[in-house]
Design goal:
Layout: H1 2-11, E1 51-81, E2 87-88, E3 90-93, E4 96-99, E5 101-114, E6 119-125, E7 128-134, E8 143-149, E9 152-163, E10 166-175, H2 183-188, E11 192-205, H3 216-220, E12 228-231, E13 240-244, H4 269-277, H5 281-290, H6 292-303, H7 306-311, E14 352-354, E15 357-359, E16 364-367, E17 384-392, E18 398-404, H8 410-415, E19 420-422, E20 427-429
Antiparallel strand pairs: 1-2, 1-5, 1-8, 1-10, 1-11, 3-4, 6-9, 7-8, 9-10, 11-13, 12-13, 14-15, 16-17, 16-20, 17-18, 18-19
Helix pairs in contact: 4-6, 5-6
Length: about 425
């Protein structure tokens, strides 16, 4: 259930930022993540690349069995017809307004359980048309809603090969439909929000973010295209893998205080809720008319209590609450919380010894983020940087601020203090002791 909640957030990421009106430009740009367009759509500038590829490591413990679930959205157009069957931009029946709009239908393909073996399986989703009659009990004007879907064709391919006593799995989902004729056609025949959930028995998946020492070399040989696999179960569970098109950490979860999915990376519910609350009644009515999910968000925000809103403000957690750390050296008789204690450190001139080199502002270093680092930091592995400051916190830890040397915006980042921070053991000095 926990993994499914996160997978749903991935599935609808980009579907609806929050309930804008239908005439808002932001509501016209959707489907931002995990979109697998028809073959050739990316090269032609009509849509997205046609496949995602993720590699994962499986440590067998007996006879492993895999269960693969491929999930994505299929675009569905909602056309509006008046009482005479003519297409219209919108229709109001029994006090409810319907707009001509694009919706989506969830699709899920389950394969297995089966032993991990190389092979490919076709994916075929039929086209369809559904007609919903709109009736007015009071005898007013009526009409209908016509929902249409194009057929989708794809393929799931599994590659299996040994690697240092492990099995390296290559999981690929690709769109194999016919080439698109225009951008609209490409969106209509794309696999949207595509991701994979893999479950294993008789073995366990290896973390790609914090691998055990015996698997580190094999992890370094894994490659990915438009996705990244993470452990999706609760901490300690290595039986579930989520191949996600958005960046996640191992064992992700939805915050307990997030009571309604707002389809925005599961992280800024408070801001979006406050924004919904500023909408006028007319704007809310227009937003409700775009999509049932938009209507549900508006209704939930309107019904939110002060206590529920306060919980969205966030929860402060101290990951080192049970650890004891020395505080920085400060003048005798001065408590660390007093302003005078600030004079004990000078980030613009302080230095920290690394491999026999005093590293200070202006020093050049090479970045080697530790596996404990934020996933965004891993993108800077091996990059050269310039030190901007050296900081000491009240727990006795040292943090080194840097800017990336080949970043065109490095000078601007340094000007307004937007640094990247690393621990000293994540830095390699690029000069001798007089650096």
């Amino acid at each position: 259930m926990r993994a499914r909640a996160v997978a749903d957030a991935v599935l609808y990421e980009g579907y609806l930022l929050y309930p804008y009106r239908a005439d808002s430009r932001k509501n016209r740009s959707r489907w931002q993540f995990g979109v697998l367009g028809p073959p050739g759509a990316a090269a032609a500038g009509l849509g997205e690349d046609s496949e995602l590829i993720g590699q994962a490591l499986l440590a067998p413990a007996g006879d492993p069995m895999l269960r693969i679930t491929i999930r994505f959205l299929q675009l569905q157009h909602r056309g509006v017809r008046d009482a005479d069957g003519r297409a219209v931009p919108e229709s109001t029946v029994a006090g409810r307004t319907w707009l001509d709009w694009d919706e989506a239908v969830e699709q899920e393909i389950v394969l297995g359980p089966a032993p991990p073996a190389p092979g490919a399986v076709p994916i075929a989703i039929a086209d369809g048309t559904d007609i919903e009659q709109l009736d007015d009990p009071a005898g007013g004007p009526t009409g209908s809603i016509v929902r249409t879907r194009c057929e989708l064709h794809g393929e799931f391919e599994l590659g299996v090969e040994p690697d240092d006593g492990l099995l390296r799995l290559t999981l690929t989902v690709r769109n194999t439909g016919t080439p698109a004729t225009d951008q609209r056609d490409a969106a209509t025949r794309s696999l949207i929000g595509a991701h994979i959930i893999a479950e294993v028995t008789g073995g366990e998946f290896v973390s790609l973010l914090e691998p055990p020492p015996y698997a580190a070399a094999a992890v370094d040989r894994c490659t990915h295209h438009r996705c990244f696999p993470v452990l999706a179960g609760p901490p300690g569970d290595h039986s579930l893998l989520l191949v996600s098109p958005i960046i996640l950490y191992d064992h992700p979860e939805i915050a307990a205080q997030s009571v309604e999915p707002l389809y925005d990376a599961t992280e800024i519910d408070e801001i979006l809720t406050l924004r919904v609350m500023t909408m006028t009644d007319e704007e809310k009515a227009t937003a409700r008319a775009t999509d049932p999910r938009a209507a549900r968000i508006v209704d939930r925000c309107e019904a939110m209590t002060a206590e529920e809103l306060a919980r969205l403000h966030g929860v402060l957690r101290d990951p080192h609450a049970d650890e004891v750390h020395p505080i920085p050296d400060i003048p005798p008789g001065v408590d660390w919380w007093e302003p005078e204690a600030d004079t004990a450190v000078r980030p613009d001139s302080d230095a920290v010894p690394i491999a026999g080199v005093l590293v200070r502002r202006g020093s050049r270093v090479r970045l080697h983020p530790a596996r404990r680092a934020d996933i965004h930091d891993m993108f800077f592995d091996g990059r050269d940087a310039r030190v901007t400051s050296v900081h000491a916190d009240v727990e006795g830890r040292t943090h080194v601020g840097v800017v990336i040397l080949d970043d065109p915006g490095a000078d601007l980042h340094e000007w307004y203090g937007r640094y990247l921070y690393f621990d000293p053991d994540e830095l390699e000095p690029l000069a001798g002791p007089d650096n």
